Amino acid sequence: MGLLSGLLGLPLAPLRGVGWVLEQVVQEAERQYADPAPVHRELAELETDLLAGRITEEEFSLREDELLDRLEQITNGSREDPADSGGPALQEGPQ
Predict the structure, then answer these.
(1) 3-state class of 93 per DSSP?
(2) Which among 94, 93, 73 is positioned nearest to 30, based on CA atoms?
(3) Would you write out the chain's pLDDT as a tens digit for each of its 95 residues?
(4) How far apart are CA 75 and CA 7, in angstroms?
(5) pTM here?
(6) Which listed residue, of 9, 16, 27, 35, carries a Cα 20 to 30 Å from 59's Cα?
(7) Cβ within 8 Å of residue 46, ≥6 positions away
(8) Complete DSSP assignment for 66-90
(9) Angle CA(15)–CA(82)–CA(86) in degrees, nearest 5?
């Protein structure tokens, strides 16, 4: 980068920094969303709640279906390209 372009681009430096931070936040959110461990933990807690009588069979069944669907998405998503998942795609760069 030349001196002139560096000086002219200096006012945009904060925007580039904010863009980098947002990119890091999105990457971390995607990593956490794709981690099956919290879903397994929730399934175990759900079963504990059922056995302790804190929830009904119907509540257990509904929540278990949701968690298993989520686990299936995570498992299938790890073998697919995120851009091909059919969900909303995150776009980079200026709009």
Answers:
(1) coil
(2) 73
(3) 578 787 788 888 888 888 899 999 999 988 888 899 999 999 999 999 999 999 999 999 999 999 999 999 988 876 554 444 444 444 444 44
(4) 48
(5) 0.55
(6) 35
(7) 55, 60, 63, 64, 67
(8) HHHHHHHHHHHHTTS-GGGSSSPPP
(9) 110
